[in-house]
Amino acid sequence: MTKEQVIVTAAQMRDIEGRIFAAGMPVAALMEKVARLISDRLQAIIPQGQRVGILVGPGHNGGDALVVARELHFRGYQVWIYQPFSKLKELTSQHFQYAQSLGIPVYQEIEELPSCDFLVDGLFGFGLEREITDSIALAINHFNEWNQPIFSIDLPSGLHTDTGAVLGTAIRANHTFCLGLWKQGLLQEQALEYIGKAELIDFDIPLADIHDVLGNPPKINRITKTTALATLPLPRSPVTHKYKSGHLLLICGSRRYAGGAILTGLGARASGVGMLSIAVPESIKPLLVSHLPEALIIDCPETETGAISHLQLPGKTPLSSFTVIACGPGLTKDATPIVEQVINSEVPLILDADALNILAQLGTISTLQKRKTTTVLTPHTGEFHRLFPDIDFKDRVKAVQTAASQTGAVVLLKGARTAISNPQGVVWINPESTPALARGGSGDVLSGLMGGLLAQVANKQVNIEDVVATAAWWHSQAGILAAEERTELGVDAFTLTQYLMKVVIAI
Ligand SMILES: NC(=O)C1=CN([C@@H]2O[C@H](COP(=O)(O)OP(=O)(O)OC[C@H]3O[C@@H](n4cnc5c(N)ncnc54)[C@H](O)[C@@H]3O)[C@@H](O)[C@H]2O)[C@@H](O)CC1
Ligand SMILES: Nc1ncnc2c1ncn2[C@@H]1O[C@H](COP(=O)(O)OP(=O)(O)O)[C@@H](O)[C@H]1O
Ligand SMILES: [K+]
Protein backbone atom coordinates (compact mmCIF):
# COMPACT_ATOMS: atom_id res chain seq x y z
CA MET A 1 0.00 0.00 0.00
CA THR A 2 1.27 3.49 -0.87
CA LYS A 3 0.22 6.74 0.80
CA GLU A 4 -1.21 7.92 -2.53
CA GLN A 5 -3.85 5.23 -2.04
CA VAL A 6 -4.96 6.35 1.44
CA ILE A 7 -7.99 8.55 2.11
CA VAL A 8 -8.82 9.99 5.54
CA THR A 9 -11.57 11.92 7.27
CA ALA A 10 -10.75 14.80 9.62
CA ALA A 11 -11.29 12.58 12.66
CA GLN A 12 -8.95 9.90 11.29
CA MET A 13 -6.27 12.46 10.43
CA ARG A 14 -6.50 13.91 13.93
CA ASP A 15 -6.17 10.42 15.36
CA ILE A 16 -3.12 9.62 13.19
CA GLU A 17 -1.43 12.93 14.12
CA GLY A 18 -2.27 12.29 17.76
CA ARG A 19 -0.32 9.03 17.64
CA ILE A 20 2.70 10.74 16.09
CA PHE A 21 2.68 13.42 18.80
CA ALA A 22 2.10 10.87 21.57
CA ALA A 23 5.13 8.95 20.29
CA GLY A 24 7.29 12.00 20.91
CA MET A 25 7.30 14.06 17.71
CA PRO A 26 7.02 17.70 18.85
CA VAL A 27 4.06 19.53 17.26
CA ALA A 28 6.27 22.50 16.43
CA ALA A 29 8.82 20.27 14.70
CA LEU A 30 6.14 18.67 12.55
CA MET A 31 4.70 22.06 11.59
CA GLU A 32 8.19 23.25 10.66
CA LYS A 33 8.78 20.17 8.52
CA VAL A 34 5.41 20.33 6.75
CA ALA A 35 5.57 24.06 6.08
CA ARG A 36 9.13 23.73 4.80
CA LEU A 37 7.96 21.17 2.24
CA ILE A 38 5.14 23.52 1.17
CA SER A 39 7.48 26.45 0.87
CA ASP A 40 9.93 24.38 -1.23
CA ARG A 41 7.08 23.56 -3.62
CA LEU A 42 6.00 27.20 -3.75
CA GLN A 43 9.55 28.31 -4.54
CA ALA A 44 9.61 25.85 -7.41
CA ILE A 45 6.41 27.35 -8.83
CA ILE A 46 6.52 31.09 -7.97
CA PRO A 47 9.31 33.14 -9.56
CA GLN A 48 11.66 34.72 -7.03
CA GLY A 49 10.99 38.26 -5.92
CA GLN A 50 7.24 38.12 -6.59
CA ARG A 51 4.66 39.55 -4.18
CA VAL A 52 2.92 36.89 -2.09
CA GLY A 53 -0.07 37.50 0.20
CA ILE A 54 -0.40 34.97 3.03
CA LEU A 55 -3.87 34.42 4.55
CA VAL A 56 -3.53 33.26 8.15
CA GLY A 57 -6.23 31.56 10.24
CA PRO A 58 -6.42 30.96 14.00
CA GLY A 59 -5.35 27.30 14.06
CA HIS A 60 -2.44 25.22 12.88
CA ASN A 61 -3.36 25.75 9.24
CA GLY A 62 -2.55 29.39 9.98
CA GLY A 63 0.63 28.25 11.74
CA ASP A 64 1.73 26.41 8.60
CA ALA A 65 1.02 29.57 6.59
CA LEU A 66 3.13 31.69 8.93
CA VAL A 67 6.12 29.37 8.61
CA VAL A 68 5.68 29.58 4.82
CA ALA A 69 5.54 33.40 5.10
CA ARG A 70 8.82 33.42 7.06
CA GLU A 71 10.58 31.07 4.62
CA LEU A 72 9.45 32.99 1.54
CA HIS A 73 10.50 36.25 3.23
CA PHE A 74 14.04 34.95 3.75
CA ARG A 75 14.16 33.60 0.19
CA GLY A 76 13.63 37.08 -1.23
CA TYR A 77 9.89 37.20 -1.90
CA GLN A 78 7.86 40.31 -1.04
CA VAL A 79 5.52 38.86 1.57
CA TRP A 80 2.58 40.36 3.46
CA ILE A 81 0.25 38.70 5.96
CA TYR A 82 -3.52 39.00 6.34
CA GLN A 83 -4.49 37.86 9.85
CA PRO A 84 -7.91 39.11 11.00
CA PHE A 85 -8.41 36.94 14.10
CA SER A 86 -8.18 38.19 17.69
CA LYS A 87 -7.28 34.82 19.19
CA LEU A 88 -4.72 32.39 17.80
CA LYS A 89 -3.64 28.93 18.95
CA GLU A 90 -0.42 29.19 20.92
CA LEU A 91 2.02 27.87 18.33
CA THR A 92 0.38 29.97 15.65
CA SER A 93 0.58 32.99 17.89
CA GLN A 94 4.33 32.46 18.41
CA HIS A 95 4.97 32.24 14.67
CA PHE A 96 2.83 35.36 14.18
CA GLN A 97 4.87 37.27 16.72
CA TYR A 98 8.14 36.19 15.10
CA ALA A 99 6.92 37.08 11.59
CA GLN A 100 6.00 40.56 12.86
CA SER A 101 9.41 40.93 14.48
CA LEU A 102 10.98 40.28 11.07
CA GLY A 103 9.15 43.30 9.71
CA ILE A 104 6.76 41.33 7.47
CA PRO A 105 3.78 43.68 7.00
CA VAL A 106 0.59 42.47 8.71
CA TYR A 107 -2.98 43.55 7.93
CA GLN A 108 -6.33 42.92 9.57
CA GLU A 109 -8.61 44.70 7.11
CA ILE A 110 -8.99 43.68 3.48
CA GLU A 111 -9.33 47.32 2.41
CA GLU A 112 -5.72 47.94 3.50
CA LEU A 113 -4.17 45.03 1.59
CA PRO A 114 -1.53 45.84 -1.02
CA SER A 115 -1.71 44.00 -4.33
CA CYS A 116 0.18 40.77 -4.88
CA ASP A 117 0.97 38.18 -7.55
CA PHE A 118 0.02 35.05 -5.59
CA LEU A 119 -2.03 34.21 -2.51
CA VAL A 120 -1.39 31.41 -0.03
CA ASP A 121 -4.51 30.27 1.82
CA GLY A 122 -3.85 29.15 5.38
CA LEU A 123 -7.17 30.24 6.90
CA PHE A 124 -8.62 26.84 7.82
CA GLY A 125 -7.61 23.23 7.31
CA PHE A 126 -9.21 20.10 8.67
CA GLY A 127 -10.12 21.91 11.90
CA LEU A 128 -12.95 23.86 10.26
CA GLU A 129 -16.01 22.81 12.15
CA ARG A 130 -18.80 25.28 11.42
CA GLU A 131 -20.04 27.65 8.72
CA ILE A 132 -17.80 30.56 7.85
CA THR A 133 -19.73 33.81 8.40
CA ASP A 134 -19.42 37.59 8.74
CA SER A 135 -16.17 39.36 7.90
CA ILE A 136 -14.19 36.16 7.19
CA ALA A 137 -16.80 35.06 4.68
CA LEU A 138 -16.67 38.48 3.05
CA ALA A 139 -12.88 38.32 2.94
CA ILE A 140 -12.93 34.90 1.26
CA ASN A 141 -15.41 36.12 -1.36
CA HIS A 142 -13.18 39.14 -1.89
CA PHE A 143 -10.04 37.02 -2.45
CA ASN A 144 -11.96 34.82 -4.88
CA GLU A 145 -12.64 37.93 -6.95
CA TRP A 146 -8.98 38.84 -7.17
CA ASN A 147 -7.45 37.34 -10.24
CA GLN A 148 -4.32 36.09 -8.53
CA PRO A 149 -3.61 32.36 -8.36
CA ILE A 150 -4.37 30.93 -4.91
CA PHE A 151 -2.43 28.08 -3.29
CA SER A 152 -4.39 26.40 -0.49
CA ILE A 153 -2.66 24.64 2.37
CA ASP A 154 -4.19 21.23 3.11
CA LEU A 155 -7.56 22.09 1.61
CA PRO A 156 -9.28 25.20 0.32
CA SER A 157 -10.53 27.05 3.40
CA GLY A 158 -14.26 26.58 3.76
CA LEU A 159 -14.54 23.03 2.44
CA HIS A 160 -15.77 20.29 4.75
CA THR A 161 -12.86 17.87 5.11
CA ASP A 162 -15.01 14.74 4.70
CA THR A 163 -17.89 15.66 2.39
CA GLY A 164 -16.24 18.47 0.43
CA ALA A 165 -19.34 20.61 1.06
CA VAL A 166 -18.89 24.38 1.13
CA LEU A 167 -19.40 25.60 4.70
CA GLY A 168 -20.81 29.06 4.04
CA THR A 169 -18.20 30.05 1.50
CA ALA A 170 -14.83 28.70 0.38
CA ILE A 171 -11.59 29.72 -1.26
CA ARG A 172 -11.46 28.83 -4.94
CA ALA A 173 -7.91 27.56 -5.17
CA ASN A 174 -5.82 27.06 -8.27
CA HIS A 175 -3.60 24.58 -6.48
CA THR A 176 -4.08 22.61 -3.26
CA PHE A 177 -1.25 21.10 -1.24
CA CYS A 178 -2.93 18.29 0.66
CA LEU A 179 -0.84 17.47 3.72
CA GLY A 180 0.23 13.95 4.65
CA LEU A 181 -2.76 11.94 3.44
CA TRP A 182 -5.58 12.66 0.98
CA LYS A 183 -8.59 14.16 2.73
CA GLN A 184 -11.84 12.54 1.63
CA GLY A 185 -13.46 15.90 0.82
CA LEU A 186 -10.91 16.50 -1.96
CA LEU A 187 -12.30 13.44 -3.77
CA GLN A 188 -15.91 14.52 -3.54
CA GLU A 189 -17.53 15.96 -6.62
CA GLN A 190 -18.98 19.04 -4.94
CA ALA A 191 -15.46 20.17 -3.99
CA LEU A 192 -13.92 19.96 -7.44
CA GLU A 193 -14.53 23.54 -8.52
CA TYR A 194 -12.62 24.76 -5.46
CA ILE A 195 -9.51 22.59 -5.48
CA GLY A 196 -7.67 23.34 -8.70
CA LYS A 197 -4.68 21.06 -9.17
CA ALA A 198 -4.29 18.85 -6.12
CA GLU A 199 -0.96 17.53 -4.89
CA LEU A 200 -0.03 15.39 -1.90
CA ILE A 201 2.76 16.67 0.36
CA ASP A 202 4.16 13.52 1.96
CA PHE A 203 5.55 14.26 5.42
CA ASP A 204 6.55 10.72 6.38
CA ILE A 205 3.58 9.52 8.41
CA PRO A 206 4.55 6.02 9.64
CA LEU A 207 2.54 3.26 7.92
CA ALA A 208 1.93 1.61 11.29
CA ASP A 209 -0.06 4.64 12.47
CA ILE A 210 -2.10 4.64 9.27
CA HIS A 211 -2.90 0.95 9.67
CA ASP A 212 -3.75 1.34 13.36
CA VAL A 213 -6.34 4.00 12.58
CA LEU A 214 -7.66 2.90 9.17
CA GLY A 215 -7.19 -0.86 9.31
CA ASN A 216 -5.02 -2.93 6.98
CA PRO A 217 -6.08 -2.76 4.22
CA PRO A 218 -8.05 0.46 4.79
CA LYS A 219 -11.73 0.57 3.81
CA ILE A 220 -11.73 3.68 1.64
CA ASN A 221 -9.09 3.81 -1.07
CA ARG A 222 -7.94 6.02 -3.88
CA ILE A 223 -7.31 4.27 -7.20
CA THR A 224 -3.74 4.79 -8.35
CA LYS A 225 -1.83 3.59 -11.38
CA THR A 226 -0.19 0.94 -9.20
CA THR A 227 -3.46 -0.41 -7.81
CA ALA A 228 -5.04 -0.42 -11.26
CA LEU A 229 -2.15 -2.24 -12.91
CA ALA A 230 -2.26 -4.91 -10.22
CA THR A 231 -5.48 -6.34 -11.67
CA LEU A 232 -4.78 -5.82 -15.35
CA PRO A 233 -4.65 -9.27 -17.01
CA LEU A 234 -1.03 -8.87 -18.07
CA PRO A 235 1.10 -10.71 -18.87
CA ARG A 236 -1.14 -13.30 -20.47
CA SER A 237 -0.27 -16.89 -19.79
CA PRO A 238 1.75 -18.24 -22.74
CA VAL A 239 -0.53 -21.29 -22.88
CA THR A 240 -3.86 -19.52 -22.63
CA HIS A 241 -6.51 -20.02 -25.27
CA LYS A 242 -9.51 -17.93 -26.28
CA TYR A 243 -11.96 -19.59 -23.89
CA LYS A 244 -9.47 -19.42 -21.05
CA SER A 245 -9.20 -15.66 -21.56
CA GLY A 246 -12.88 -15.18 -20.78
CA HIS A 247 -16.08 -15.32 -22.78
CA LEU A 248 -18.09 -12.13 -22.44
CA LEU A 249 -21.72 -11.86 -23.50
CA LEU A 250 -22.89 -8.32 -24.17
CA ILE A 251 -26.64 -7.79 -24.36
CA CYS A 252 -27.22 -4.36 -25.76
CA GLY A 253 -28.68 -2.17 -28.47
CA SER A 254 -32.02 -1.68 -30.17
CA ARG A 255 -33.11 -0.37 -33.52
CA ARG A 256 -33.28 3.07 -31.88
CA TYR A 257 -29.91 2.83 -30.13
CA ALA A 258 -27.76 0.71 -32.43
CA GLY A 259 -24.67 2.86 -31.78
CA GLY A 260 -24.69 2.00 -28.06
CA ALA A 261 -24.13 -1.65 -28.95
CA ILE A 262 -21.18 -0.78 -31.18
CA LEU A 263 -19.54 1.38 -28.51
CA THR A 264 -20.01 -1.30 -25.87
CA GLY A 265 -18.50 -3.83 -28.25
CA LEU A 266 -15.50 -1.61 -28.98
CA GLY A 267 -14.96 -1.08 -25.23
CA ALA A 268 -14.95 -4.85 -24.76
CA ARG A 269 -12.58 -5.33 -27.70
CA ALA A 270 -9.99 -3.08 -26.06
CA SER A 271 -10.02 -5.20 -22.88
CA GLY A 272 -8.33 -8.10 -24.67
CA VAL A 273 -11.13 -10.53 -23.78
CA GLY A 274 -10.75 -14.01 -25.35
CA MET A 275 -14.24 -14.39 -26.80
CA LEU A 276 -16.84 -11.73 -27.35
CA SER A 277 -20.49 -12.50 -28.08
CA ILE A 278 -22.98 -9.68 -28.60
CA ALA A 279 -26.73 -10.26 -28.46
CA VAL A 280 -28.67 -7.62 -30.40
CA PRO A 281 -32.07 -7.33 -32.11
CA GLU A 282 -31.89 -9.19 -35.44
CA SER A 283 -32.31 -6.09 -37.59
CA ILE A 284 -29.03 -4.54 -36.43
CA LYS A 285 -26.90 -7.68 -36.69
CA PRO A 286 -25.32 -6.66 -40.05
CA LEU A 287 -24.27 -3.35 -38.58
CA LEU A 288 -22.58 -5.02 -35.63
CA VAL A 289 -20.81 -7.54 -37.86
CA SER A 290 -19.39 -4.75 -39.97
CA HIS A 291 -17.96 -2.92 -36.93
CA LEU A 292 -16.82 -5.92 -34.90
CA PRO A 293 -15.87 -8.72 -37.30
CA GLU A 294 -14.20 -10.73 -34.53
CA ALA A 295 -17.32 -10.89 -32.35
CA LEU A 296 -20.03 -13.53 -32.48
CA ILE A 297 -23.18 -11.51 -33.12
CA ILE A 298 -26.27 -13.24 -31.77
CA ASP A 299 -29.42 -12.05 -33.49
CA CYS A 300 -32.44 -12.05 -31.20
CA PRO A 301 -36.13 -11.77 -32.06
CA GLU A 302 -37.26 -8.21 -31.62
CA THR A 303 -40.32 -6.34 -30.45
CA GLU A 304 -42.30 -4.04 -32.74
CA THR A 305 -40.34 -1.17 -31.27
CA GLY A 306 -37.03 -2.75 -32.26
CA ALA A 307 -35.89 -3.94 -28.81
CA ILE A 308 -34.65 -7.45 -28.02
CA SER A 309 -37.79 -9.42 -27.08
CA HIS A 310 -36.01 -12.48 -25.71
CA LEU A 311 -32.61 -14.07 -25.79
CA GLN A 312 -32.13 -16.74 -28.43
CA LEU A 313 -28.75 -18.37 -28.13
CA PRO A 314 -27.47 -20.50 -31.01
CA GLY A 315 -27.87 -24.29 -30.69
CA LYS A 316 -28.32 -25.31 -27.13
CA THR A 317 -25.78 -22.87 -25.68
CA PRO A 318 -26.68 -22.36 -22.02
CA LEU A 319 -26.22 -18.92 -20.45
CA SER A 320 -23.84 -20.54 -18.01
CA SER A 321 -21.28 -21.02 -20.79
CA PHE A 322 -20.46 -17.29 -20.55
CA THR A 323 -17.95 -16.10 -17.99
CA VAL A 324 -19.62 -12.72 -17.57
CA ILE A 325 -22.69 -10.96 -18.97
CA ALA A 326 -22.84 -7.18 -19.39
CA CYS A 327 -26.33 -5.98 -20.12
CA GLY A 328 -27.98 -2.65 -20.70
CA PRO A 329 -26.59 -0.04 -23.10
CA GLY A 330 -29.16 0.99 -25.69
CA LEU A 331 -31.73 -1.71 -24.79
CA THR A 332 -34.71 0.62 -24.25
CA LYS A 333 -37.28 -0.20 -21.58
CA ASP A 334 -39.01 -2.67 -23.90
CA ALA A 335 -36.34 -5.26 -23.18
CA THR A 336 -37.62 -6.12 -19.70
CA PRO A 337 -37.91 -9.92 -20.20
CA ILE A 338 -34.26 -10.32 -21.16
CA VAL A 339 -33.12 -8.34 -18.13
CA GLU A 340 -35.23 -10.56 -15.89
CA GLN A 341 -33.73 -13.60 -17.60
CA VAL A 342 -30.12 -12.62 -16.94
CA ILE A 343 -30.86 -11.55 -13.38
CA ASN A 344 -32.29 -15.03 -12.79
CA SER A 345 -29.15 -16.68 -14.19
CA GLU A 346 -26.14 -17.55 -12.08
CA VAL A 347 -23.63 -15.82 -14.33
CA PRO A 348 -21.67 -12.81 -12.99
CA LEU A 349 -23.52 -9.79 -14.29
CA ILE A 350 -22.94 -6.11 -15.03
CA LEU A 351 -26.11 -4.04 -15.29
CA ASP A 352 -25.91 -0.61 -16.90
CA ALA A 353 -28.13 2.03 -18.50
CA ASP A 354 -31.58 0.67 -19.49
CA ALA A 355 -31.00 -2.53 -17.54
CA LEU A 356 -30.79 -0.30 -14.45
CA ASN A 357 -34.01 1.50 -15.31
CA ILE A 358 -35.71 -1.87 -15.77
CA LEU A 359 -34.21 -3.10 -12.49
CA ALA A 360 -35.62 -0.04 -10.70
CA GLN A 361 -39.07 -0.90 -12.05
CA LEU A 362 -38.75 -4.52 -10.97
CA GLY A 363 -37.73 -3.37 -7.47
CA THR A 364 -33.99 -2.94 -6.95
CA ILE A 365 -33.39 -4.52 -3.59
CA SER A 366 -35.94 -7.37 -3.67
CA THR A 367 -34.82 -8.40 -7.18
CA LEU A 368 -31.09 -8.37 -6.43
CA GLN A 369 -31.39 -10.16 -3.11
CA LYS A 370 -32.37 -13.28 -5.07
CA ARG A 371 -29.09 -13.37 -6.98
CA LYS A 372 -26.55 -15.95 -5.91
CA THR A 373 -23.52 -14.62 -7.75
CA THR A 374 -21.73 -11.36 -8.52
CA THR A 375 -23.70 -8.36 -9.70
CA VAL A 376 -22.14 -5.02 -10.64
CA LEU A 377 -24.36 -1.95 -11.05
CA THR A 378 -22.95 1.07 -12.90
CA PRO A 379 -25.43 3.94 -12.47
CA HIS A 380 -24.85 7.61 -13.16
CA THR A 381 -26.46 10.01 -10.67
CA GLY A 382 -29.90 9.93 -12.32
CA GLU A 383 -29.97 6.15 -12.52
CA PHE A 384 -28.75 5.95 -8.93
CA HIS A 385 -31.72 8.04 -7.73
CA ARG A 386 -34.12 5.83 -9.66
CA LEU A 387 -32.58 2.67 -8.19
CA PHE A 388 -32.23 4.00 -4.64
CA PRO A 389 -34.73 6.82 -4.11
CA ASP A 390 -34.42 6.55 -0.32
CA ILE A 391 -30.64 6.86 -0.06
CA ASP A 392 -29.38 10.25 1.14
CA PHE A 393 -27.01 11.59 -1.51
CA LYS A 394 -25.23 14.37 0.43
CA ASP A 395 -22.14 12.22 0.84
CA ARG A 396 -21.60 10.20 -2.35
CA VAL A 397 -19.20 7.83 -0.64
CA LYS A 398 -21.72 6.92 2.04
CA ALA A 399 -24.47 6.72 -0.61
CA VAL A 400 -22.57 4.18 -2.71
CA GLN A 401 -21.65 2.14 0.39
CA THR A 402 -25.29 2.02 1.45
CA ALA A 403 -26.43 0.98 -2.03
CA ALA A 404 -23.90 -1.85 -2.13
CA SER A 405 -24.76 -3.08 1.33
CA GLN A 406 -28.53 -3.04 0.63
CA THR A 407 -28.23 -4.98 -2.63
CA GLY A 408 -25.23 -7.24 -2.12
CA ALA A 409 -23.91 -5.86 -5.43
CA VAL A 410 -20.74 -3.99 -6.27
CA VAL A 411 -21.99 -0.49 -7.10
CA LEU A 412 -20.07 1.96 -9.28
CA LEU A 413 -21.47 5.48 -9.09
CA LYS A 414 -20.35 7.35 -12.20
CA GLY A 415 -19.35 10.96 -12.29
CA ALA A 416 -16.39 13.27 -12.20
CA ARG A 417 -15.08 11.28 -9.23
CA THR A 418 -16.49 7.81 -9.78
CA ALA A 419 -16.90 5.88 -6.52
CA ILE A 420 -17.13 2.09 -6.20
CA SER A 421 -18.24 0.10 -3.16
CA ASN A 422 -18.56 -3.59 -2.41
CA PRO A 423 -21.31 -4.84 -0.05
CA GLN A 424 -18.90 -4.76 2.92
CA GLY A 425 -18.23 -1.06 2.37
CA VAL A 426 -14.77 -1.34 0.79
CA VAL A 427 -14.57 1.74 -1.44
CA TRP A 428 -12.41 2.79 -4.37
CA ILE A 429 -12.52 6.39 -5.61
CA ASN A 430 -11.19 7.36 -9.03
CA PRO A 431 -9.17 10.53 -8.37
CA GLU A 432 -8.42 11.64 -11.92
CA SER A 433 -10.72 12.11 -14.85
CA THR A 434 -11.72 14.71 -17.39
CA PRO A 435 -14.95 16.55 -18.19
CA ALA A 436 -14.18 15.58 -21.78
CA LEU A 437 -15.94 12.31 -20.89
CA ALA A 438 -19.24 14.05 -20.20
CA ARG A 439 -20.67 12.92 -23.55
CA GLY A 440 -23.32 10.45 -24.62
CA GLY A 441 -21.94 6.98 -25.12
CA SER A 442 -18.83 7.17 -22.95
CA GLY A 443 -20.58 5.08 -20.30
CA ASP A 444 -21.33 2.38 -22.89
CA VAL A 445 -17.60 2.10 -23.54
CA LEU A 446 -17.02 1.58 -19.82
CA SER A 447 -19.58 -1.24 -19.66
CA GLY A 448 -17.90 -3.17 -22.43
CA LEU A 449 -14.39 -2.59 -21.10
CA MET A 450 -15.37 -3.67 -17.59
CA GLY A 451 -17.16 -6.76 -18.90
CA GLY A 452 -14.09 -7.79 -20.87
CA LEU A 453 -11.79 -7.27 -17.89
CA LEU A 454 -14.03 -9.17 -15.49
CA ALA A 455 -14.36 -12.07 -17.93
CA GLN A 456 -10.58 -12.42 -18.08
CA VAL A 457 -10.04 -12.54 -14.35
CA ALA A 458 -13.34 -14.04 -13.18
CA ASN A 459 -11.82 -17.41 -12.37
CA LYS A 460 -8.79 -15.98 -10.59
CA GLN A 461 -8.50 -14.94 -6.95
CA VAL A 462 -9.45 -11.32 -7.36
CA ASN A 463 -11.88 -8.96 -5.68
CA ILE A 464 -14.57 -7.90 -8.11
CA GLU A 465 -14.45 -4.30 -6.86
CA ASP A 466 -10.70 -4.16 -7.63
CA VAL A 467 -11.37 -5.08 -11.27
CA VAL A 468 -14.26 -2.64 -11.50
CA ALA A 469 -11.90 0.05 -10.17
CA THR A 470 -9.29 -0.85 -12.77
CA ALA A 471 -11.89 -0.49 -15.52
CA ALA A 472 -12.90 2.96 -14.21
CA TRP A 473 -9.24 4.02 -14.03
CA TRP A 474 -8.43 2.75 -17.53
CA HIS A 475 -11.52 4.42 -19.01
CA SER A 476 -10.76 7.82 -17.47
CA GLN A 477 -7.04 7.64 -18.31
CA ALA A 478 -8.04 7.07 -21.94
CA GLY A 479 -10.22 10.18 -21.69
CA ILE A 480 -7.34 12.18 -20.20
CA LEU A 481 -4.90 11.03 -22.89
CA ALA A 482 -7.39 11.76 -25.67
CA ALA A 483 -8.18 15.21 -24.23
CA GLU A 484 -4.44 16.03 -24.05
CA GLU A 485 -4.06 15.29 -27.74
CA ARG A 486 -7.45 16.50 -28.98
CA THR A 487 -8.69 19.02 -26.34
CA GLU A 488 -11.65 18.47 -24.04
CA LEU A 489 -13.98 18.88 -27.01
CA GLY A 490 -12.38 16.11 -29.01
CA VAL A 491 -13.26 13.01 -27.01
CA ASP A 492 -16.42 11.56 -28.50
CA ALA A 493 -17.18 8.02 -27.36
CA PHE A 494 -15.86 6.35 -30.51
CA THR A 495 -12.58 8.29 -30.22
CA LEU A 496 -12.40 7.22 -26.60
CA THR A 497 -12.42 3.55 -27.62
CA GLN A 498 -9.39 4.22 -29.82
CA TYR A 499 -7.42 5.60 -26.86
CA LEU A 500 -7.99 2.69 -24.50
CA MET A 501 -5.12 0.69 -25.93
CA LYS A 502 -2.84 3.75 -25.97
CA VAL A 503 -3.14 3.91 -22.16
CA VAL A 504 -1.72 0.41 -21.84
CA ILE A 505 0.97 1.04 -24.44
CA ALA A 506 2.07 4.15 -22.50
CA ILE A 507 2.50 2.23 -19.23
N1 LIG B 1 -0.54 19.78 14.24
C1 LIG B 1 0.44 19.99 13.38
O1 LIG B 1 1.54 20.31 13.69
C2 LIG B 1 0.16 19.86 12.02
C3 LIG B 1 -0.88 20.60 11.56
N2 LIG B 1 -1.22 20.59 10.32
C4 LIG B 1 -2.05 21.71 9.93
O2 LIG B 1 -3.01 21.97 10.92
C5 LIG B 1 -4.30 22.01 10.37
C6 LIG B 1 -5.27 21.63 11.40
O3 LIG B 1 -5.06 22.53 12.44
P1 LIG B 1 -6.18 22.90 13.49
O4 LIG B 1 -6.68 21.66 14.11
O5 LIG B 1 -5.61 23.92 14.37
O6 LIG B 1 -7.37 23.49 12.65
P2 LIG B 1 -7.47 24.65 11.58
O7 LIG B 1 -6.24 25.43 11.48
O8 LIG B 1 -8.00 24.03 10.37
O9 LIG B 1 -8.62 25.58 12.15
C7 LIG B 1 -9.10 25.46 13.46
C8 LIG B 1 -9.27 26.80 14.08
O10 LIG B 1 -10.28 27.52 13.43
C9 LIG B 1 -11.36 27.82 14.34
N3 LIG B 1 -12.57 27.69 13.54
C10 LIG B 1 -13.12 26.54 13.09
N4 LIG B 1 -14.20 26.81 12.33
C11 LIG B 1 -14.30 28.16 12.29
C12 LIG B 1 -15.19 29.07 11.64
N5 LIG B 1 -16.19 28.63 10.87
N6 LIG B 1 -15.01 30.40 11.80
C13 LIG B 1 -14.00 30.86 12.54
N7 LIG B 1 -13.13 30.06 13.19
C14 LIG B 1 -13.26 28.72 13.05
C15 LIG B 1 -11.22 26.84 15.46
O11 LIG B 1 -11.76 27.38 16.64
C16 LIG B 1 -9.70 26.68 15.52
O12 LIG B 1 -9.09 27.72 16.23
C17 LIG B 1 -4.21 21.13 9.18
O13 LIG B 1 -5.21 21.39 8.23
C18 LIG B 1 -2.82 21.44 8.68
O14 LIG B 1 -2.82 22.60 7.89
C19 LIG B 1 -0.49 19.78 9.38
O15 LIG B 1 0.43 20.59 8.82
C20 LIG B 1 0.23 18.61 9.96
C21 LIG B 1 0.97 18.99 11.15
N1 LIG C 1 -17.42 15.86 -15.56
C1 LIG C 1 -16.91 14.64 -15.70
N2 LIG C 1 -15.64 14.40 -15.36
C2 LIG C 1 -15.13 13.18 -15.52
N3 LIG C 1 -15.80 12.10 -15.99
C3 LIG C 1 -17.07 12.27 -16.33
C4 LIG C 1 -17.70 13.54 -16.21
N4 LIG C 1 -18.97 13.40 -16.62
C5 LIG C 1 -19.13 12.11 -17.00
N5 LIG C 1 -17.99 11.42 -16.82
C6 LIG C 1 -17.79 9.98 -17.09
O1 LIG C 1 -18.35 9.69 -18.36
C7 LIG C 1 -19.09 8.49 -18.32
C8 LIG C 1 -20.55 8.82 -18.67
O2 LIG C 1 -21.34 7.68 -18.54
P1 LIG C 1 -22.91 7.73 -18.74
O3 LIG C 1 -23.51 8.88 -17.99
O4 LIG C 1 -23.43 6.37 -18.46
O5 LIG C 1 -23.06 8.07 -20.29
P2 LIG C 1 -23.79 7.27 -21.46
O6 LIG C 1 -24.94 6.53 -20.84
O7 LIG C 1 -24.23 8.33 -22.41
O8 LIG C 1 -22.79 6.37 -22.06
C9 LIG C 1 -18.91 7.91 -16.93
O9 LIG C 1 -17.84 7.01 -16.92
C10 LIG C 1 -18.56 9.15 -16.09
O10 LIG C 1 -17.80 8.83 -14.96
K1 LIG D 1 -6.46 26.18 3.86
UniProtKB/TrEMBL annotation:
K(+) binds at residues 61, 121, 157. AMP binds at residues 414-418, 443. Its cofactor is Mg(2+); K(+). It holds the Pfam family YjeF_N. It catalyses: (6S)-NADPHX + ADP = AMP + phosphate + NADPH + H(+); (6S)-NADHX + ADP = AMP + phosphate + NADH + H(+); (6R)-NADPHX = (6S)-NADPHX; (6R)-NADHX = (6S)-NADHX. The keyword Isomerase applies. Binds 1 potassium ion per subunit. Keywords: ATP-binding, Isomerase, Lyase, Metal-binding, Multifunctional enzyme, NAD, NADP, Nucleotide-binding, Potassium. Its EC number is 4.2.1.136, 5.1.99.6. Residues 13-211 form the YjeF N-terminal domain. InterPro entries: Carbohydrate_kinase_pred_CS, CARKD, Nnr, Ribokinase-like, YjeF_N_dom, YjeF_N_dom_sf. Residues 225-507 form the YjeF C-terminal domain. (6S)-NADPHX binds at residues 60-64, 125-131, 154, 330, 380, 444. Bifunctional enzyme that catalyzes the epimerization of the S- and R-forms of NAD(P)HX and the dehydration of the S-form of NAD(P)HX at the expense of ADP, which is converted to AMP. This allows the repair of both epimers of NAD(P)HX, a damaged form of NAD(P)H that is a result of enzymatic or heat-dependent hydration. Catalyzes the dehydration of the S-form of NAD(P)HX at the expense of ADP, which is converted to AMP. Together with NAD(P)HX epimerase, which catalyzes the epimerization of the S- and R-forms, the enzyme allows the repair of both epimers of NAD(P)HX, a damaged form of NAD(P)H that is a result of enzymatic or heat-dependent hydration. Homotetramer. In the N-terminal section; belongs to the NnrE/AIBP family. This is Bifunctional NAD(P)H-hydrate repair enzyme.
